[in-house]
Amino acid sequence: MRNIRTIITTVLLALLFNISAGAQEYFMHTVTQGQGLYSISRMYGVTEDEIIRLNPGSEKVIRAGEELKIPVKRNPTSGKFHTIQKGETLFRLSVENRISVKELCDANPGLSAENFKIGQVITIPAPSDQDPLASTLEHAGDDTPKEIKEAVQTILTDTATYRTTHVVKKRETIFRITRTYGITQEEFLEANPEYKYNKLKQGAVVKIPFSRDEIAKRNKRINDAQDRMQSIPDSTLFSMNESKSKDTDGIITAALILPFSLDDSTTTLQKQMIEFYQGMLLALDRLKNEGVSVNLKVFDSQADGTSVQPLLDSGDMDDVDIVFGPRWTNQITEVARWSTAHQVPLVLPMNAAADDVFNNPYVFQLNTPQSYFNQEIYNHFLEQFPDPNVIILDADEYRRNEFIDGLKTVLTDHSIPYSTIMVDTAYQVLMDTLVPYKQNIMIINSPSSGPLNTMLPVLQLITRLKAPEVETHLFGYPEYQIYAADHLDELYEVDTWFYSWFYTNNMLRESVDFNALFRRSFSRQMMVSYPSFASYGYDTGYYFLKGLAVFGKDFENHLNDFQTDPVQMGFKFERVNNWGGFINRKVFFVHFSNNYKVEKIDFDK
Hints:
Layout: H1 2-15, E1 26-30, H2 37-44, H3 48-54, E2 67-71, E3 80-83, H4 90-96, H5 101-107, E4 121-124, H6 132-140, H7 146-157, E5 164-167, H8 174-181, H9 185-191, E6 205-208, H10 212-230, H11 234-240, E7 251-258, H12 268-289, E8 293-300, H13 309-313, E9 322-324, H14 329-342, E10 346-348, E11 363-365, H15 370-384, E12 388-394, H16 402-413, E13 418-422, H17 427-433, E14 439-444, H18 449-465, E15 471-476, H19 480-493, E16 496-500, H20 509-522, H21 533-551, E17 573-575, E18 582-584, E19 588-592, E20 598-602
């Protein structure tokens, strides 16, 4: 190891690039689909106001592909963010920042040879005490390619500052020594300056330098080896430094941490958590029939504000392969720290407001942040309705609607016409906005039941009176599945569509079968809730535990490679950035058609 570190020191000195002495005030972030100011600010640990100050106008709208200036927050202990520039390579960044390629890859698990490109933002950890290349090669071991080994060997044999040493014999002179070794007296004195004015003494040890020709040849060999190392493809370095995590030992140990609050009186939340657990038990039973063994540890996290740190410190979690929960934000922060330290996946099924997903690569957030969720809806909307005439029905007291604001921007960007009229406008005014031979899509700017109750009779009347060439649809929100029990016939008649990240209906086969299974297993009906928590626990448990069983700890690289026929949910995971975790961007469209059928449309099949 000492020899390798000597090599690395030489390489670093030879290859280290000049870094600007001036403090960088900002770096550039390219906006991706679904990102808003909130999510971007959480990624980089800055405030929305700080981003707005550097990017005037961003408080109104930001679009995918747009570049934003992000203020630099320098922290010598946690590293920095960096936007990849033209000509930069994985190896060059490693050398410039005095970190190993492995450390750089570990800090950015979403980074790969395919997306290592100009404009990508990565996090660069603080320099460590280890030599960068030594750590890289030590981790790669036998996976180190031959050309890299040869380059290292060249440097290993060519880094000495002198050729050898010589013990002075009786009456031996500098002239005789230089003739013996084929060097000049000048070269000898450069290596041994103390003998410019002093005589040699018998028994003294002197350095025998390389000749100038030898130095030139050696430097050429070293430079060639260094050039070969600099030209190592990023794909090779990524391959060398892939995570070598161990698979489970045949039995998956999972932890479920939820607020069962069994010591308190029964509450709706408690019932929901118990049904989530019962749904997960049904998933475990199915996995058992498929030959998958799961040891499920269940912990009661109690009320909001209660710390779960004593549980994490108790040793009860030491053998856990995956964690589901908890529910409360303060507990999520505690478990997220633990998951990072132990490199254990953390599945968050209940909380959409937790920020840990933006900076923890082990977090899987099922309840998708709204801005990402909206972008999926817009994409599917344009796919389902390629030639729409959009009519926004404005319920005056509900004008603040993130979904509608974003939809207007998307429609404008695609040159799609839309108009806005008040909810309480006479039906004839609405009739006059309809365009023949187009898909007339009416959207209330509120998910609340009040405006829907107001508009349904009007939309029914229009449906009955419109000309045959006029096509009309109502488009709405996940809440419409709650209202369907009271307005099913009306929703059918006006041909209703709505989006949701979950949906189940007793008219769908998978729902009928699951209801029957739950009833047989627990001798009661599931409680009515949106989402159904029993189905939620079943879908979530089966998906993740099946993935671990099939792919081991590498399952995060196969998240969208397998189907699990969920009852209520779907799964479509993407990393939020190169150093953060995963969000579920799955969204369905549900169609209550005017021929009285229910369709659940999965755009990813």
